[in-house]
Fold these 2 entries.
Entry 1:
Amino acid sequence: MCGIFGYVGNRNDGQKLVFSGLKSLEYRGYDSWGVGVIPEESKNTIAIKKKVGKIGNANVSDLPGGSLSFGHTRWATHGGVTDANAHPHLDCSGTIAVIHNGIFENYEEIKKGLLRKGHKFVSETDTETLTHLLEDFSKDKPFAEAVRAAFNRMDGLNAVIAVSAKENLLVAARNGSPLVIGFGKNENFLASDASALLPYTRDVYFLEDNEMAVLAPGKVTILNVKTAKEITPKRKRLDWKIEQGEKGKYKFYMLKEIFEQPQIITDIAVSGASQAEEIAKKIKDARGTYLVGCGTASYACLAGSYLFSKLAKRHVNFAIGSEFGYSLDFLNKDSLVIAISQSGETMDILESVKKAKDKGAKILSLVNVPGSSLYRLSDYKMLIGAGQERAVASTKAFTGMVAHLVLLANSLNGGVKEGQKSLMAAVKSVNQILSLKSLRKIKELTSRIVDKKHIYVIGRGLSYPASLETALKIKEISYIHAEGLAAGELKHGPLALIEKGTPCISFLPNDETYGSNLAGAMEMKARGGYIIGISHKPREVFDYYIHVSDAGESSIIPEVIVAQLLAYYLTIKKGLDPDKPRNLAKSVTVK
Ligand code: M6R
């Protein structure tokens, strides 16, 4: 979702640095962008460039140079995708600028008051209200104090950067959306994502909710937004690898990330066992365990509930992040919430986890981004270890999540070695899928179904979450409507939609669901469905067959990797960009 990058220091081309910082945040998903700078030559003003669309080959060479600069990639919430609505926004005097992530929930009533006072609004955004509010407040307050007062008037979950040309100051405040301060030598940085800071510094502080930072050249002051009390920041050293930008031989990040999976799963199988055994003890001690995630991560959670039942004979509840908050009144201090998230910044998860914490529940997080908000607020932490995932469509994070859950579920019954074996069988199966022969087969299938309007995907047991994930991958990047179903539900309604030539993907793994899944495929075939069988052996009912060798309880991993490739090639065939699907963001930091 929206990206923020800020710079205050001794370089006089801060605008270029900010622009390149924004490029590294592009993967989060956005529809317009903007950069602001206090020009070296004209210190009392703010120069701005903002545009609809992707950064692409744009540059900021038409902006003046300056040592205080800030930029934003916008994912529209309030107001259409227009140049005027892109951030930064200026006040009437042009000396105060604001960029903002989140939703200013009570902006309408405040805006009415400001309009009455004569402020001129030029955009449809909630954000612009803050610039005019700051203009009012800073008439009789130092700028940082004005930002604090204005931020305290804002309802909702927000991260804000406000700049004063008169005071040559950049002030940031956070409640909800992430912000990280980077400390350099006589220069300081700020970003919505720590990975964007890596080229400049590894010395960082993750701003917590209701904290603000005042950045002047060579000095950063952190304050509590409510009390104005100064806080001594506990800085962290980032030991992450710089992985961005390198697609290597791959045209798109998504394909690169798909191909990274055998190595990631191997690494988890080899080095995740002892951690899984340790964490399994926490699950054993809990009275009531809940797996919670959103989107793709929610399907990993659903898979987890089957794995825990099957391998550990343990009931683990599953909930979607955005819904969990409405159904957790029964949680108590003995409950354990396992929150799963690639980014660790998904607002729907953070919100419900905070509610669960208020009820006394313990939080165990399985996240891919170290230092993320979810990671920091958890009692117990596990890292997925999939490396930076940049394509909006999650691939390697999903299989990484499932791989950890396989180990955890096996550890609960004392059989972590079985889990490792089954993950290695999955790796073998995935390597076969990634062979040229198998890739050709998947590509050929895309020519047969690319023009279809609807695709249905069915499975039972662990292949049910695989079906849901397959449908999500197809729809989010190829824009073909796809629906994942529990195969048993077909005859309770969806079968009415199957007609001659409708593509129907059937998962038939080598487990107890095989016979019933076969029956489902036949039911669709009898209505004219074009049956695509994904299985360890061919059947007559299949119109098209893709081989996936058996990997026991880990078979969901290769099944989903076939789906990832199918979605990828469908997208390429349609001439679309699989890394940046329309309307979507990598990190969903609003509700
Ligand atoms: O970062 P998270 O894992 O919490 O993200 C959750 C979903 O937003 C994410 O999985 C989304 O569904 C992906 N675009 C799916 O590919």
Entry 2:
Amino acid sequence: MDDKVIIFDTTLRDGEQVPGCQLNTIEKIQVAQALEALGVDVIEAGFPISSPGDFNSVVEISKAISNPIICALTRAVKKDIEVAAEALQYAKRKRIHTGIGTSPMHIQFKIKTTPEEIIKRAADAVKYAKKFVDDVEFYAEDAGRSENEYLARVIEAVIKAGATVVNIPDTTGYCLPEEYGSKIKYLLNNVPNIDKAIISTHCHNDLGMATANTMMGIINGARQVEVTINGIGERAGNTSLEEIVMIIKSHHDLKVRTDINTKLIYSTSRLVSTLMNMPVQANKAIVGRNAFAHSSGIHQDGVLKKRENYEIIDPVEVGIKESSIILTARSGRAALNHRLELLGFKMGKEELDEIYHRFLQMADKKKDIKDEDIRILAGVVFQGEKSMKLDMLQVTCGKSLMPVATVGLKINGELHYATATGNGPIDASFTAVRQLISKTVHLEEFLIQAITKGSDDLGKVHIQVEYDGKLFYGFSANTDIITASVEAFIDALAKIQ
Ligand code: KIV
Ligand code: ZN
């Protein structure tokens, strides 16, 4: 049986420290519930002494979550530990995560004390936390730049004091993978009581090595990893959960496993991105928009022949319906024919040659070739106007008011109106639109993003709807996010027609 690697998620603590990513308690509970469904083992819910909001979130997450351990962060300070214990009072399974800096830099310039005093304060903090909970994790802050021999002495002392997990953070993201792996190995081989605790990794991505370092930690014996969804976190971020989980899943040779339900990775990633207002970079491994998109002709041809030619992960495994073939000037005939078939056109060789020739001319001028363009190329008469357009939208909403929306839609040139209520202005508007179309569509994704941070900013809305097993994408931007949302919805619906 493969060894289990414990997934410790710190999206709500290290991730949430990022400026602009702050969540309110209800949103934090939403994320915590998504993490529970995903199958994480530990949720670091916050740093209770840092603010009343953080304290309250740890209390409410403790009440709302059943399976994962709820963890609260503290410094090696009695008051922090008392407050964390109080915040965790409703948790079914609880952990206090306490610690102190162990690098020469932190000891001399941050804490301004001696190495011996650090060992004493570390052990005292663990002993004190043990009075409140059985499960105490110790972090040696800046362990990445700490001397291994000294670090081993600190770790031995905290395990003796009762630590069940010892966290070796590369706080500044400085270590090379080899160096970080050797550090974990050194501790396993040189801390006499190490068998009484689990070694945890906690890597930052300042030099882009967080995932590599975490993997070297696992390879050298760490059995807990501290990670965040989409790799969000201080500065360049933390190790991303989805990367570690999918590396482990793809490499059976490592002989380790996790309990993550990988099919929920994509939806959890979108939820965190939306709530935290942190767009995911297009080329982000596993969850980026382009992670399963193929644009060069050779790759497209290969993927269409057999997906595994250019993909090591089946997108379905991470909750993405299918790979996408992006039509560009570098696409070949196979990709164009594939798209034509999806749009319902069957072409003979000569017809395809002719369309391909015209397609290349168009692709040279236009970066983004849409299905509408392909239809034109295929000889379908372009209707100039979209088949469905928002003509008017009137919404009433506010505190203590039932949201009501009236929508005027121009469908094939004819105006139709509908009015509906909903649990919010967007829900009411979408319900009114649904009344005017004859199809049953499911909303698969709904992402609102502000372009900058001002309240007068443009809101961008991306929507994906599912109809008859296929996904249709809609987009709009407007200073009024309700209008943008309805326009994006209609943009997607118009594509179905
Ligand atoms: O990066 C770090 O060292 C941390 C600790 C507080 C665990 O986040
Ligand atoms: Zn950190």
